[in-house]
Amino acid sequence: MLSTVNIQHLESLHDVIERITGVAQRETVPDEVVRRAGQIELVDLTPEALRRRMAHGNVYRPEKIDATLANYFRPANLTALRELALLWVADQVDDALRRYRSEQDITEVWETRERLVVAITGGPESETLVRRARRIAARVGAELLVLHILRGDGLAGADPAALARCRTVADGLGASFHTVVGDDVPTALLDFARGVNATQLVLGTFRRSRLARLVNQGIGATVVQHSGAIDVHLVTHEEAGTGVRLPALRGALPRSRKRVGWAGAVLLPAAAIAIGVTGRDLFGLSTDVVVCLLAVVGVALIGGLGPALLAAVLGGLALNFFLPPPLYTLTIADRANVITLVLMLVVAVMVAMVVDRAARRATQATRAHTEASLLASFARTVLTDPDPLPRLLDKIRESFALTSVALLERRDGRWQLAASTGPDPCTSPDQADADITVTDDVRLALRGRAVTAADQLTLEAAAGDPELMLSPTDSAELLATVEESTDRLRALVDNLLDSSRLATGAITPALYPVGYDEVVLRALSGVDGSQRVQIDIDESLPHVLADPGLLERVVANVVDNALRHGGGSPVAARASAHADHVELRVVDHGPGIPRGAATSMFAPFQRLGDRDTTSGIGLGLSVAQGFTDAMGGAIAIEDTPGGGLTVAISLPTAPAREQTVGRPARGDGAMR
To answer: What is the DSSP letter of 225?
Structure first.
């Protein structure tokens, strides 16, 4: 079937056509109806040719010709309508091309249409970059896309207010705003650009110092090297060249640990040298070097980078002065001793970097856990309290240890107190120790202490005037969703904290005899969908020697993984004894895993090929393996007969004399 439709009758262009022609169309067709056509063909005529056809009576009856030519079908109107038709059809062709490239897995750029992507960080230079990119796009008639890349772990990012301003600027310039997630920024940027068939990229010039560039050349240089057919523009801005500190040099350890580390930087190398001097006849130089290296590593684990470097220098110099010939001189007769000193410095830096990164991740995760709990508490207050505003302000005062909290509104140019809690509330923002902007005319005035920048972000999220009215059913449903999301976030943060503890060797299991039947029941109580788990564990099985708390986390993570990725199939938990071990098997009948992928499942931040990142970050099985190894057990992956995946957790049997000894209900080894 064939049909025709004029461009002015498309629903999406209704308001545009009315502004151009001054006539509102009464009959419109949804764009989706036209898009579903098997083939779309543009019938294009110049304005002059169409007006000639109308003048000859080929379109309207003679009595309408003069009126239509003088009004609706003026040359300027026809030119604008013609351009709209060309652009609308071009968009449909572009969508079809994008679908074809996706279906055929084509990643190289086809320069069929100029499309420009500008990457922003959310920093102070971002608005400048967007405006510069708009001018570049205008010169070549390119479509402009603004891209912001979020870190995959979600623990760090740009200021939300800055990103909101960038989004407003992009909207005002007619650009589309996009956000993608990726830990490797150059790869994520180029993947997005190729995915949208971009022909040009705009990046800000380096803000890195020369020292930082020696370690990492930066995003811009990496993108240029791998951009291929995509042209890359590096735009200068005021922030270029200001330099940033190396990430590894930003300490995240508490001051107490650093103080102990500085003391240890002197005492531990001295103790190592004392051992070498007193045991000169018993130990060789290689043993002395190993003892000094252990002292340096110990200092790095305690105090981080600075104390580790001091310990490495002092230990290396003292080692050379007291132990190798010639004695009691800093002269290094053997070139191998120079290499030893350098290697001690390298080891100190590497270990300290790992410790510092783990401490920083743990700090960020703890902060995220706190913020999530606070926001969930605030949301629960708004949804459940019939008069939520006073209670919300009171919870803010309590949570942030403030004297008073006041919500101020500006009316007729004067600030007025809308609600408050605590003694002596502020009556204007100028009186506050901290002033949180809700809107231009609404402020949250805090008195009692200044708040940190991180606390301000949390307060800005909770500071809106809660005038939302929901039915009891909607409130209950929304509250349940908030609690469920908070539980998931807490589980994610717990896994991050546990991963950091495993990386730094801070896990000390408290081993007791414990039965799988007890642990599995406790573990399932905190797992969503546990009603789909079938438990088949004989209570007469021998107890295993394990930390009950750690084992509960292991079982919960493994069962949760089976429920998420088992394709909706039932999950079974079975146990059996083999020689001196008792094995718990968690079995699902889902799609299983590809051949050869079993070993990579226990790698951190891996989630079944990274195809889905909506409900986790791939730490559950990694943490489970770390805890199992710490308890002296083993965890393995097997194919389920008939299809699916089986995870086997094997732990040593508790000694016979301890099988009936009283045990604590839950261990706390993971917290020590």
So the answer is: H
